[in-house]
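Notes from hallway chat w/ T.B., transcribed later so I don't forget. T.B. wanted the structure written out for a chain they're using in a teaching module, and asked if we could keep both sequence and structure tokens in one place. Agreed to drop them here.
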Amino acid sequence: MSIDMSNDDSKSWVVHKYGGTAVGKYAREIAGIVKSDLSSNRVAIVCSARSTSTKSEGTTNKLLRAAKEAESGNSKTYEDIVTSIRQDHIKTAEANITSEAIQARLSAEIDEECNDLSHFLAAVQKIQEITPRSLDIIIGKGEILSCRFMAALLQDNGVNADFVDLSNLLNVRSTLSVDQSFFNSVITAIRTLLSTAGAKVPVITGYFGTVPGGLLSQVGRGYTDLCAALLSVSLAASELQVWKEVDGIFSADPRKVSTARLLSAITPLEAAELTFWGSEVIHPFTMEQAIRARIPIRIRNVTNPLGSGTKIVPNPSDASPRRPTFTANTSTSLLFRPRSSGPGIADGHARRPTAVTIKHNILVMNIHSNKRSLSHDFFARVFSTLDRWRLSVDLISTSEVHVSMALHSESGLVHSVGSSKEVVDLDLQGALADLAEVGNVDLIDEMAILALVGREMKNMTGIAGKMFSVLGDHNVNIEMISQGT
């Protein structure tokens, strides 16, 4: 085996981001994509932790379970989970890498990483406590193992790949917050680290070290997408390509809607709305970092590399002067803007919604004031209670004495046994007890949020009426109505 494919520093950077399922199922296809792109671009790669059949059995979820078991203090189950992770990665290496030397080196690296993980979890069990920083370190092992595998696989395919670990990129002080200054420091650190990359193709961990307050709580599971965006900015890349198992972003879920269209381009705001309302597009932080640096993002299919995918790029007509910041000494006239009006015309044609998406597992909470407090006090007590019990609200609809809210949780807020239903989420239980002092509370579970997404939809006269008419024609009752930007 010879290493004959390298980066050419005369070409512009393109960053490839591969998700866990792509790495788990289509590693060889990824190697082919990288080799093909090296002919026209300088390539840097970011990988998520491996996942195969289901996300619940992916490496990151296994690591989270291991952390929970270790914290319990009386279980050795975490050792079995680490053994499972070790065996999975070694088996994958043996199945995909032909060079005995590369395979043996990778197996030794996997053993070393898993041994380190076991020792760390043993320490967690001893103190029976996991801090946000400890949890960051534990889940970060998933990206380290994934990137070690991909770097070895690329080397086995003749690519001059180099594993790059960002775990110790920053020495985070507890006083820092996750804001733009923090992201700027990450960008600078990555740029410095890769300044000596030369002709090598860097395979970079999507985990970029501990962050103030914890990576999962401050950023969420999309932190590898964010890392790819920060890498793109640090390299001044010409494009960030996020490789998934779908051809791009569709106007609806193609598994459910036969007439769904592949969208060639959408705006960052539309992508953010689709992500929030149930479509797994891309983490909002990712778009914010890439778009503010004017780096386009393209969603592409790892099983269809010839497809052009969907490009996320600002619409030129969206550019407008930044409004002055309002302060106590500023005239209130600056707060006013022209009212929305007109049919919504773009390029001589009536503008249409971009896509429709749905978010399941919604619980609607209705609170009717007991009228012993003024309306502003009623709202203040409701929202302070939600904040105190860390409940996030997706939608809200209000009147002077009534509030309806849509809540969502992947872990489940309510458990049903036959016709009996019980609230199982402890935070929701606490909130309900406190809210009972404010007014009458009732819950409606097994709801869904249907969202119609499009640029400047509030200027599309009559679109709301058409949407409600379609729902009515299909006997769909509306529990709540809300409008975004």
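Follow-up for T.B.: The mean pLDDT is 86. Might be a good example for the class.
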